[in-house]
Amino acid sequence: MIPVIAVEEPEGFDEACRKAGTTWLQNNPNAKRPRDFWSPFRLRLAEAFKDRCGFGAMWISSGTVDHFMSCHEDKNLAYEWSNYRYVEGWLNSSKSKKRAEELLDPFSVADGWFEIVLPSMQMVVSQCIPEPFRALAERTLTLLPLRDDERILRTRRQWLEAYENGMPLEVLREKAPLIAIAVEKRDLARKLIGR
């Protein structure tokens, strides 16, 4: 996970999503899942996240709108821009039964709280994370599963391979920043020991 800065809700969101959704909820109080009025704003959300998954911290071609506080927890937040996160589809699915209080919010993360370990490609909590956030961060890595699920390890390996095959470091920094940091640390260590 990397820091994500919240952005103002897009123009037209209040009418097309918040108000339309609130009206729909009032007319369908027993519905299991709120009607999707948020998808037309998915690309604006992707821009806010720089097209990177809020949890996986890597570029994704087509993420989903995640309700950080799930609709099961609070339907009243189903149509609130501040409750949306841009997330890889399979991670969003793995999050579906989790409560927001069990997970670290991407909007709460600061620089350096997480790192990728080479060569395993595992995401771990760094020493930089403040103690009050440590347990929640560890739990987030296992509940989602961000630490070492093969689906995410495979993607991390692909970014590393692209870099090792000539992709510029600047591009890696943009698309997979935690991997870029890991590569820079590795390369610096190699230089220091003369390899």
Give a written overview of the molecule:
The chain is mostly helical and 195 residues long. The protein has helices at residues 13-27, 42-48, 89-95, 131-143, 150-164, 169-175, 177-192; strands spanning 64-67, 84-87, 114-117, 122-125. The strands form 2 sheets. The chain has a two-stranded antiparallel sheet with strand order 1-2. A two-stranded antiparallel ribbon has the order 3-4. Strand 3 (114-117) and strand 4 form a beta hairpin. Helix 6 (169-175) packs across helix 7. It is elongated, with a radius of gyration of 18 Å.
User: How many strand units?
Assistant: 4
Structural class: mainly alpha
Structural Rg = 18 Å
| Amount of beta strand | 5-15%
Characterize the main sheet. Answer: 2 strands, antiparallel
What count of domains describes the coordinates?
A: 1
Number of helices: 7
The strands making up the biggest β-sheet line up spatially as: 1-2
Overall geometry comes to elongated
Helix content: 40-55%
Terminal Cα separation, in Å? 30 Å
Q: Would you summarize the structure shown here?
A:
The chain is mainly alpha-helical and 195 residues long.
Features:
single chain, 195 residues, mainly alpha, two-stranded antiparallel sheet, 4 strands, 41% helix, elongated
